[in-house]
Amino acid sequence: MSDTAQRSEQLYTYQDYLTWPESERWELLNGRAYNMTPAPSRKHQEISGQLLTLFNNYLKGKTCRVYAAPFDVRLPQLQESDEQTSTVVQPDLVIVCDTSKLDHRGCKGSPDLVVEITSPSTFQKDLKKKFILYEKVGVREYWIVYPEENTLSVFHLTQEGKYSRPEVYTEQDSIKVGIFEDLTIELSEVFA
C-alpha cells in the first residue's frame, strides 16, 4: 500500500493504534491512519544512518537525544489524554532536548528538530500535511531531505510561530544546525 492508503475513513486514536500489528507501520494525522512506506530505499537508509551517526557523535555527554524511526512522537491537542491522542507520527529522525517528554513509548510533545527523508509516496505528506503539523505544534527546526536530488530544505520556526522561507542546501554545502550553537554538518558526508 502507498502511504496515502488509509486504514478506513474512520477516525482513530493512539489507543486504537497500540492494538495494530507491530509488523505494520502507521501514522495518525488528526485521527486519519496513513500506511507508512514498508521498505525505505537503500539511499534513504544511508542518509538516515549518516545523519543519525553525526547527531549521535555530537550529542555524546549532552542532554538532547536523537532517535530514528520507528519512534512514536505523540502530539496531543489540548485536553487530549495520551490514549485519546489523534496525532502520532514516526519521523525519520527526531532530536528531543526536553527529556521530560520522553517515556517508554517514545516522545509526547514536540521534538526540537525533525528530519523527514522523502520518497515518491511520502513527498506530498511530508511537504504539506507534516509541514503544517510541525509548524502548528512548534517544532523549532524541520528538515526535508530529497535523496534523489541530494538536496535538503531547512525551515526554522520564527518568533511568530511560523516557519521561515526554506534554506535550500546541496551536497556541496555545510549546514549550521539552528538548534545548536556549534554544530555544522557537511552534506558531502551525508550524501556520499
Automatic annotation (TrEMBL):
Superkingdom of origin organism: Bacteria
MF terms in GO: endonuclease activity
Keyword Hydrolase: yes
Keyword vocabulary terms for this entry: Endonuclease, Hydrolase, Nuclease
CDD domains, A to Z: DUF820-like (cd06260)
Domain Putative restriction endonuclease per the UniProt entry, residue ranges: 15-185
Protein name as it appears in the record: Endonuclease, Uma2 family (Restriction endonuclease fold)
Name of one Pfam family that matches: Uma2
Entries under SUPFAM superfamilies matching the protein: Restriction endonuclease-like (SSF52980)
